[in-house]
């Protein structure tokens, strides 16, 4: 299986995959659960990041088990989705952003596979955290579908599960963050460490705290995700057949050498 989708808030359904079965994968970090189905003759994995019934909050997702499981299944390319708030007046609710960089404001997570000892001491290059080939395909496919998708944006990851304060959002904006979410760190880091191509489709669900005219709620996030679910599914499903077998990027080279 070379391609997997990691579905964020509001994306719990593998959509148009057929012959779906559940896989439980035991990893050194715990068990990961995903659905595997076929799409256009190819096996595709689907992993709901927060669990099938959205029971796992962002700070408790077992990111290491999830990414290790994908590696064990021989996945090479990951398309992930994330609901985000926007600090950038140019990025409005309902817009997609094909993220190209991140800032990390998390506090309590496990950020690496490389803890020394057997795994070694590895300093992974993060000059290009998100796969440029997947990013280009996502941007081109969205344009072809007439879906508004910004080519690039900086995702600032906060610890959650609370939303941010207005002062935090002003800080993030001043430091160059366009979007805020609670899950992409350490997910993108771990994916990059093990040489996966990782592309993130962020869906803006709200203007961030202090910019939005109203208090924030998870219900609002899910409502916007629901309204735009078809576009998101179309974008993912139209992108998948365009992903070449050969990887024309450096993602497989930047990570550490690992045996799964
Ligand atoms: N902040 C953090 N995470 C989010 C937001 C937000 O405003 N909207 C959706 N996920």
The CATH topology is Rossmann fold
Overall number of structural domains:
1
How many H/I helical runs? 7
What's the CATH architecture name? Answer: 3-Layer(aba) Sandwich
* Low-pLDDT sequence parts: none
The CATH superfamily is known as: Nucleoside phosphorylase domain
Measured between the Cα atoms of the first and last residue, the distance is: 15 Å
Instruction: Specify the helix fraction band.
Output: 25-40%
Mean pLDDT: 94
Structure summary, number of beta strands: 11
| Amount of beta strand | 25-35%
Largest sheet: 11 strands, mixed
Comma- or semicolon-separated keywords:
eleven-stranded mixed sheet; Rossmann fold; 260 residues; 11 strands; alpha/beta; binds hypoxanthine
Q: Explain this structure to me?
A:
- The protein has 260 residues and is α/β, with parallel strands linked by helices.
- It has one domain: Rossmann fold (3-Layer(aba) Sandwich).
- Helix content is 26%, strand content 28%.
- It is built from seven helices and eleven strands.
- The chain has helices spanning 63-72, 132-145, 166-174, 184-193, 218-227, 229-239, 251-254; strands spanning 3-7, 18-27, 30-39, 42-48, 77-86, 96-98, 101-105, 149-151, 154-158, 179-181, 197-207.
- Helix 1 runs parallel beside helix 4 and helix 2 (132-145) crosses helix 6 (229-239).
- The radius of gyration is 17 Å and the shape is globular.
- The relative contact order is 0.22.
- The protein binds hypoxanthine.
- Hypoxanthine binds at residues 83-85, 158, 163-164, 180-182, 205-206, 208, 216, 221.
- Its EC number is 2.4.2.1.
- The record marks 164, 218 as: Important for substrate specificity.
- Keywords: Glycosyltransferase, Purine salvage, Transferase.
- One of its GO terms (molecular function) is S-methyl-5-thioadenosine phosphorylase activity.
- Phosphate binds at residues 9, 49-50, 183.
């Amino acid at each position: 299986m070379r391609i997997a989708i990691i579905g964020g808030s509001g994306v719990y359904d593998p959509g148009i995959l057929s012959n779906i079965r559940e896989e439980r994968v035991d990893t050194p970090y715990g068990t990961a659960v995903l659905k595997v189905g076929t799409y256009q003759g190819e096996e595709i994995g689907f992993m709901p990041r927060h669990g099938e019934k959205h029971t796992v909050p962002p700070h408790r997702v077992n990111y290491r088990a999830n990414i290790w499981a994908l590696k064990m299944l021989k996945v090479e390319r990951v398309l992930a989705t994330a609901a985000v708030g926007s600090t950038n007046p140019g990025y409005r609710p309902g817009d997609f952003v094909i993220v190209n960089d991140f800032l990390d404001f998390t506090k309590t997570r496990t950020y690496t596979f490389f803890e020394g000892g057997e795994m070694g001491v590895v300093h992974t290059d993060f000059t290009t955290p998100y796969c440029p080939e997947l990013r280009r395909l996502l941007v081109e496919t969205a344009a072809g579908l007439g879906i508004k998708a910004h080519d690039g944006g900086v995702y600032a990851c906060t610890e959650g599960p609370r939303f941010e304060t207005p002062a935090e959002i002003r800080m993030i904006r001043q430091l160059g963050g366009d979007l805020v979410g609670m899950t992409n760190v350490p997910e993108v880091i771990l994916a990059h460490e093990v040489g996966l191509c990782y592309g993130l489709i962020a869906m803006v669900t709200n203007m961030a705290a202090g910019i939005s005219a109203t208090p924030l709620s998870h219900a609002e996030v899910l409502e916007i995700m629901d309204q735009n679910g078809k576009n998101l599914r179309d974008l993912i499903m139209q992108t998948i057949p365009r992903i070449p077998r050969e990887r024309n990027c450096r993602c497989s080279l930047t990570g550490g050498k690992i045996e799964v």
